[in-house]
Amino acid sequence: MRLLELGELCRWINFTPVELSLLMSATLIFSFLAALKLDGIINPSWWSLFAVYFVADGMLCYFALIVFIRLCFVGQCKIAAIRALWSFFQLLALLALKQLLCSKYDSHKQLTYSEVFTPLYGILVILMIRACQMR
């Protein structure tokens, strides 16, 4: 079985290595904090734990905006618009997923997991379409 290389992964999901490293850092910190919460060592709300991801999402939006502006200055406005739309759609869907997870875990709403993961399903469908279009 062959795994994706970094360049292939970045081209497939349209993230740069900097964005991927930011997401992996946020995932590492969140995993550590979630393990401490589930073991009963700390007792913050789920919204506080997911704040790590919310900060990372804000940084990713800022980074996508910078890339959009720089590509427009270079003269590649069409590519910039497509990349910005894709990045913001992904970030918006992931933000919705995280908010639904927080609502479910804090028991504010009685949601099923199929309802919670609906934004992720949308991202996966679009990724499958993109994978079929790539050479």
Automatic annotation (TrEMBL):
Membrane-crossing segments per the record: 12-34, 46-69, 81-101, 113-132
InterPro entries: TM_Fragile-X-F-assoc
Domain of life: Eukaryota
Tagged with keyword Transmembrane: yes
Keywords: Membrane, Transmembrane, Transmembrane helix
Protein name: Transmembrane protein 203
